[in-house]
Specification:
alpha+beta; seven-stranded mixed sheet; 4 helices
């Protein structure tokens, strides 16, 4: 696991196209994610991480610290149900793993590393949108195992994202997001 670096962005776009669907992220969005993954451009506080060997990317956890995000990729957010405010909460934007490393605990390891960095910045929690229809329910299962709590389901969450969903195969995506919240334990 390594922090996301600018030189990884080109290969990262290729990886996300394969992992979640062509066009889910544009090159401009990947660049924006890189910029928003640190508090005010502090590279030593990078919140997004890659799983890679040599130059090949096998996984990514995109994470935004508090103050660097206000919504997810799709539509639906319920901050009134969270234990902490938006300004105290980080965001897990996306987690993608190559098929060859799925089921080996890398999703949790990448996410826990991001939580560690968020905690060092004073974040009190993390919110995310779990993909309800993920194969075997893996998206929700690993988050529940980490301690995330479901907040609300958002049907058709990604319907306005113009991409070819790996499940739906063509726009618009018909999948449901489960908004989930994790309260960072004190002293972490």
């Amino acid at each position: 696991m390594v922090p996301l670096k600018e030189q990884d962005l080109g290969r990262l776009k290729e990886f996300t196209d394969r992992a979640i669907g062509t066009g889910y992220y544009s090159n401009e969005e990947i660049q924006d994610i890189f910029q928003r993954s640190t508090p005010d451009g502090q590279p030593q506080k990078m919140c997004s991480f890659l799983l890679k060997r040599d130059d090949e990317i096998f996984g990514v956890r995109f994470t935004f610290p508090p103050g660097r995000w206000s919504h997810g990729k799709g539509e639906g957010l319920t901050p009134s149900r969270w234990p902490h405010t938006l300004s105290e909460t980080g965001y897990f934007q996306s987690l993608f793993l190559d098929e060859r490393v799925q089921g080996q605990g890398w999703g949790s390891k990448l996410s826990l590393k991001a939580v560690e960095v968020l905690a060092s910045m004073g974040a009190k929690g993390v919110v995310c949108h779990s993909w309800k229809e993920s194969p075997g329910g893996s998206s929700t299962k690993y988050l529940l195992k980490m301690g995330f709590q479901p907040i609300k389901e958002h049907p058709l969450y990604w319907q306005h994202v113009d991409y070819n969903c790996t499940r739906c195969l063509k726009p618009p995506c018909q999948c449901t997001a489960i908004e989930m919240y994790y309260e960072i334990p004190r002293g972490k």
